[in-house]
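User: Hi! Is it possible to get a structure for several chains at once, not just one? Here's what I have:
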Amino acid sequence: MDQNVFDDPRITAIGLLFEATAGLSARFSAQFEEHGLSAVEFEVLMRLTRSPGHQLRMTDLAAQTSLSTSGVTRVVDRMERDGLLRRRACPSDRRSSYAVVTAAGLARLDQTLPGHVQIIEQWFTGQLDPAALDALLDGLRQVRDAVHPGATAGSTDPLPAGAGDC
Amino acid sequence: MDQNVFDDPRITAIGLLFEATAGLSARFSAQFEEHGLSAVEFEVLMRLTRSPGHQLRMTDLAAQTSLSTSGVTRVVDRMERDGLLRRRACPSDRRSSYAVVTAAGLARLDQTLPGHVQIIEQWFTGQLDPAALDALLDGLRQVRDAVHPGATAGSTDPLPAGAGDC
DNA sequence: GATGGAATATTGCCATGCCTATAGTTGCTT
DNA sequence: AAGCAACTATAGGCATGGCAATATTCCATC
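Assistant: Yes, the chains can be modeled jointly so their relative placement is included. Here is the combined structure:
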């Protein structure tokens, strides 16, 4: 084991990426908690709310988040219990069901978003002058397009419909 | 709930960061699994191996990873069972114990690292020309320094000793 | 119109890891 | 020296979420 491996610029680079992301995640989680949400619940709320009709099939929601389908079942269970979502049967396909954001869910997201955006501004976008930020985002976009995990959390991607026929 | 919120450039920016990171994480996890490691175990192995004597106190290991102290107890349990680490009592302070990387642990890391670095090169550093990469890393460094979560995964930071007196 | 394969959501079982409580040390203060 | 607060590692209880199995529904093919 060569000690110099740790000084490899690639190791350093990936370390920077993960440390920056982890630091931001921690701040987000703390703020979500103030509003009674977990990071996953916020992610789900964002994805649903920006989808047509504020709804998605369970499968599509899983594909667009960091969760498996069973994970979606469970987080939707919790959020339905808390009144943030409700399930709606799909009339044209009795296998499917939709998760729909309720008024309470929209209100919760409304409460949470300003602080969320403010944290992004304070610790991320606001840390860099506009040119540096553009350069950073261009680089990230290129990496994201390359590694493309489907569509995950942040929701930058064009929406792959999913609301379909119901 | 204003639909335009989702087009806020700050939301877009944070989305890019998290999607890129998530995509890389997924590739890493797949490769770690080929070598019988989880992401956390790799993180622990990296942190310990780059520390003086290939060892850290449990507390320091927790501070330098994404785990709590009880999380460290449990991951060290597993890795000790698998022969990758062993515990060593600290003679000068009977409260403390060290996690020490074994020869098998070093060998496992040796097996894993080349592929890991290759993935970084293929999907991250190699995706950008040198100037763009530098710009990206400068931006990340600035964000990391601002949000500074202590020392986490990637291990870019100078080491806060921790091997101390034993 | 049957039938078999694909799709969908859910559940059981399990691993992981956090929070809190606990027990053992240490060292400072009186 | 006795007491006490801080520190350290661990264990119990709990929440989360993945994988595999399951039941239901759809659809294409015969």
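Chain B has a mean pLDDT of 91. Chain B touches chain A through 62 residues (CB under 8 Å).

User: Great, thank you!
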